[in-house]
Amino acid sequence: MTASTQRRGMTVKAAAFIAAAGLTASLAACSSAADSKPLVGLITKTDDNPYYVKMREGAEKKAAELGFELQSLSGQGQSDNDSQVKAIENLVARGAKGIMIAPSDSDAILPAIKKARDAGVFVAVLDSPTNPTDAADATFATDNFQAGVLIGQWAAAQFANKPARIAMLDLSPAQVAVDVQRNQGFLQGFGVDIADKNKIGDEKDPRIAGHEVTNANEAGGRAAMEKLLQRDRTINLVYTINEPAAAGAYSSIKAAGLAGQVTVVSIDGGCPGVNDVKAGAIGATSMQFPIKMAGDALQAISGYLKDGTKPATSDGLDFTDTGVTLVTDKAVPGVTSEPTTWGLDNCWG
After folding, report:
1. DSSP summary character for residue 196
2. How far apart are the first and last CA of the chain?
3. Hey, how many other C-beta atoms are within 10 angstroms of the C-beta on 111?
4. At a CB cut-off of 8 Å and minimum separation 6, what does 144 contact?
5. Of 89, 87, 80, 127, which Cα lies nearest the Cα of 108?
6. Could you write out the three-class secondary structure of 35-50?
7. Which of 158, 179, 139, 165 is nearest to 267 (CA)?
8. Tell me: the pLDDT tens digits for 261-282?
């Protein structure tokens, strides 16, 4: 999907700032009376990843329902912190009452979030918690570690009677929170000693053939899988950070003549990914719910603006868990899952 070019209801100054900063933007819930509505911003990592497209669509619908003016901004890539900082500054300058952000860097974004909160803006983090989590007013996210555990447990059952040779297709070298949590959750679920839970790549298990980064997109997944297969054609289990990376990995597996010999697992639960599970390209995926994340965050902003209340966190967690469901057509004992028929009815709901 190409970047939206709509800027309706945006001041010339704001539009010029965004263009100069290299940000992409779209504006929802616009009308001649848009300036009378409370402004809320949504900042995602990219504007073209299907996951964030769906999150934005959900936010647009909920914002219209709650009477907000929504401005959607994004960085230029999964690790583009600078553009997200500029997006926060732009929203604060425009008088935003609330900001929702899926941080590209859980640490580097903290000073910008603090400035926004100091200016009286309610900041809700989506999808990728900050470090620490209480740096924001609220966090709505998947339990990414548990999402990894589920596909790890499923894979362990598949490989109960045969040796595994595992390829790890991660996000980036930056070791951001969502990348670490999914990676380490999968390994723990599979039964690998993960050593430092907060670090990718320090495990010593000989079953692991190697790690490569994908930038969470299809081209990256394809290139990463090609590199790993060039080094080791005995790989028979592939963990991927998300379903676009899984799709790329599968294309390389198929090109290498190994389709049917390699099991791929992933996390996301988008409709294209569920269709890949149905087709057999992905064995199982953990579905998360970005529409719910955005909707719950907007509801929290609305509540805060009305009476100053903030949402409670989920039991035992320091954020609000928006849920995760394993989707596979090859259910295994002891691991709760849903089939792809359910997945296609509920993808990213």
Report:
1. S
2. 20
3. 12
4. 177, 178, 181, 182, 185, 267
5. 80
6. HHCCEEEEEECCCCCH
7. 179
8. 999 999 999 999 999 999 999 9
